[in-house]
Amino acid sequence: MLSIIQAAGWPIWPLIACSILALALVFERFMALKTARVAPPQLLDEALAVSSRGVPAPDVVQQLAQNSTLGEVLASGLRTLHVHPGASEEELRAAVEGAGRAAAHKLEKYLSALATIASAAPLLGLLGTVIGMIEIFGSQGSGPTTGGGDPAQLAHGISIALYNTAFGLIVAIPALIFWRYFRARVDEYLLTLELSAEQFVRHLSRLRK
């Protein structure tokens, strides 16, 4: 591996940095986007059951908020009723929607960075290819008139061109795949949060009455 990096020249170092960063982002998103940390399947039913006879105590609401991202959204409605027991349905909806926007921002964290790496890696590989081609033509132009240029310099330029092109694609393709996977997963979670929040707001509105 070290010999490949040495043969590829300095243009490959930005690609190596991108690959390390992409790997870290993918690992972080896999941990952050677990179902148990975002939207546990039974959490909405549990929240409805706990609040079926009245607004639960603040410690219960705090425990709900710490449960998951969905719990934070649902707890925002209960906190509104704690502060303003006579809150209208519009006020409850506004509080939950605000928490939902914050949750959406949290779920989409680092996805733009992963998309940037997927877009930039092929361009960095192309940059390495161009630099390799420049070295190739430079070796051809500076060689003796009786020969065809320095063979070692020619081989070095070719290795820079090919290795950087290949490595740029190796970094970009998995980054693009994981970005699309996480994007689809976030969209699914956002739909779940929206539907659950809407049902919970209607429940709180009936509870208030």
Could you walk me through the main structural features you see in this protein, from its secondary elements to its overall organization?
There is one protein chain. The chain is an all-alpha fold and 209 residues long. It is built from nine helices and no strands. The protein has helices at 2-8, 12-32, 35-38, 43-50, 58-67, 69-83, 89-107, 111-142, 151-208. The mean pLDDT is 86.
Annotate the secondary structure layout.
Blueprint: H1 2-8, H2 12-32, H3 35-38, H4 43-50, H5 58-67, H6 69-83, H7 89-107, H8 111-142, H9 151-208
Oligomeric state of the chains present here? single chain
Low-pLDDT regions: none
Number of helices: 9
Mean pLDDT: 86
Secondary structure tally: strands: 0
Supply database-style keywords:
mainly alpha; 0% strand
In short:
With 209 residues, the protein is mainly alpha-helical.
